[in-house]
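Quick sanity check, Formate--tetrahydrofolate ligase:
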Amino acid sequence: MLDPVEFKDWQIAEEAEKSMLSPEQWRDKLGLTNEELIPYGKTPKLDFIKIMDRLKDRPNGKFIEVTAITPTPLGEGKSTTSLGLIEGLGKRGMNVGGCLRQPSGGPTMNVKGTAAGGGNALLIPMTEFSLGLTGDINDIQNAHNLCMVALNARMQHEANYSDEELAKRNLKRLDIDPKRVEMGWVMDFAAQGLRNIIMGLGGKRDGFMMSSKFAITVSSELMAILAVATDLKDLRERISNMIVAYDKYGNYVTAGDLEVDGAMAAFMRNTINPTLCYTVEHQPVLVHAGPFANIAIGQSSIIGDRVGLKMFDYHVTESGFAADIGFEKFWNVKTRLSGLEANVSVLVATIRALKMHGGGPAVVPGRPIPEEYTKQNMALVEKGCENLLHHMKNIKKSGINPVVCINSFATDTKEEIALVKKIVEEAGGRCALSEHWKYGGDGALELADAVMDACKEPVDFKYLYPLDMPLRQRVDIIAREVYGADGVDWTPDAEAKAKAFEADPKFNDFQTMMVKSHLSLSHDPTLKGVPKNWRLPIRDVLVYGGAKFICPMAGGISMMPGTGSDPGFRRIDVDVNTGKVSGLF
């Protein structure tokens, strides 16, 4: 084991990969048949249908969800903690695995880096995991962009041909409104220069001229569909129902209307199976889906969790962003769609974030951390625990047992850690210190023990709201009960849309996917701790017909992030003699 203080993540990964089992050895270790493991280099896929059929009568293992308090812009380390917990449970001799989301090329080549964890709580093979894996994101990108090709070509032909000429080509006029095209193009990089574009410049043979846009691939509705689909049939049906645009009369134009849904599903046929990766301590981790956590569900896939719960006695999954977004969607959306109830929710917190919520100065990526975060300050920690306790309370509302994990940093003091444990325990919760980043599984034993202990307790699971509750009431109860708002204010346009959705039975089974800042319990990222005396403003409501999401938007959101001035790609390189990649954090 290498010291992460002295060695980079890619160096730790490289060392761990020297003793990594081959896919065939993993097949035997996991008890898989030859047909259940689909070869793909170091990272094979698993045939989930065959595995589920063979293990259909096996009881599910314990289900552990990992979430976090409201983070600093630097994050709380949920992926690192998820991997550390898997390693810790492995050290205790448990049959354990997990399912994480696939990282996007945008963050990997930008300032955030890959989502492979860190230190000695790391996912391998790191290069493959960070640079495309088995091609799921590329397949989604191709399927999405094919839909846009079909749309623009159809608009061009309808503009250039009469109804009779269209009929000769076996086409029906769709009358697409160029001002109401919902989809844009996607690519898996953070390219702010492509957020808004004009396409079709040139003559009438050069496509239909219109305003368009690019988003990052992982924000595509196809990624959200992959996360919630139950099988290939369900995936195919959802793709058909994707709303691509509106016609000039206000009706939906879907991928099915464009007759491109079958080809899109063909591109995505292989994405349905999870990919097998591993921790640096050689526990199995499935990788499947990678959707946005704000406008989409922000979870690894339902398929991945179903497979993991059959294969492992303890299965760990992670929710994107803080508990007010990620856990709320896990609680009221993913669980409802999957029928899989968690035994435990691990709430990750850092002393650094608690100090920020206690009134500490702003934390800005790329700038030195103020000294308040590296020196003991009991008052800031105690005040900041209000945010932690708020999230704990929300987890308890679901009936799921919370375990607070203090994700350890070298600058944390014994007194600060003891204070957090005291506050959590006085509130009726479990709290464990974990040093997985530095020590791997050995550093996560206290956390593993707390989780196993919590798994022994019964779960009295209950949703925050019934599915037949009208949309505006759902938003109100989420705002009040989860965020701590005094109510909701709707713009006239947003309220009109909400009323229309409520009146149309077609949307009765659509899930509510809230969109807001992850840097505050409120919609305002500058409001830390537990904001008081505020109301949640809803400015718009989006609909995703294939994923079956209705998305009330509390603030602006960019589907295409921007690349910073000191991006990660400046440090990534390849050894031209060995082909080994360096610099992946």
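Posting the structure with no commentary besides this: The chain has 20 helices and 26 strands.
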